[in-house]
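Per your request, structure below.
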């Protein structure tokens, strides 16, 4: 298995996996809009980076991240928005390798910390993150304002 940064040629597979993520959370398994993906990942002002876990030609999962500023003082943080492993590849170390790759991207960029959220009704994810020895923060509620 190898972890590598997605390229524009990976737009279709990212689209399909975003549909799988929606289905995982109870929505429709509908591929995401490829034009939106191209603009978000490969346009003049990329909003995020996607790392793909591959085994040969198969994509096993992905992680997406963005950089945030300020984190503490004037330093930066890396924010992992999504960590997803396809059902048939779960519990095989894929998520751990993706998580390590995101951490390394943060270290390489000089970030002081990695931040992420997890859904409270996703026990497998919560259990996975507990293995890193990180307690969920109780002092920072998460808010979402539709635009």
């Amino acid at each position: 298995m190898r972890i590598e940064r997605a390229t524009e040629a990976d737009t279709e597979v990212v689209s399909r996996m975003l549909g799988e993520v929606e289905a995982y959370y109870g929505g429709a398994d509908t591929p995401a809009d490829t034009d939106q993906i191209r603009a978000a990942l490969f346009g003049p002002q990329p909003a995020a980076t996607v790392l793909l876990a591959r085994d040969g030609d198969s994509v096993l999962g992905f992680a997406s991240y963005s950089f945030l500023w300020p984190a503490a003082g004037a330093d930066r943080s890396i924010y992992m928005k999504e960590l997803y492993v396809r059902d048939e590849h779960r519990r095989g170390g894929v998520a751990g390798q993706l998580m390590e790759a995101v951490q390394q991207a943060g270290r390489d960029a000089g970030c002081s910390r990695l931040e992420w959220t997890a859904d409270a009704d996703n026990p497998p994810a919560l259990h996975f993150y507990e293995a890193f020895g990180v307690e969920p923060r109780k002092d920072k509620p998460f808010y979402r304002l539709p635009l």
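The radius of gyration is 15 Å.

Regards,
D.
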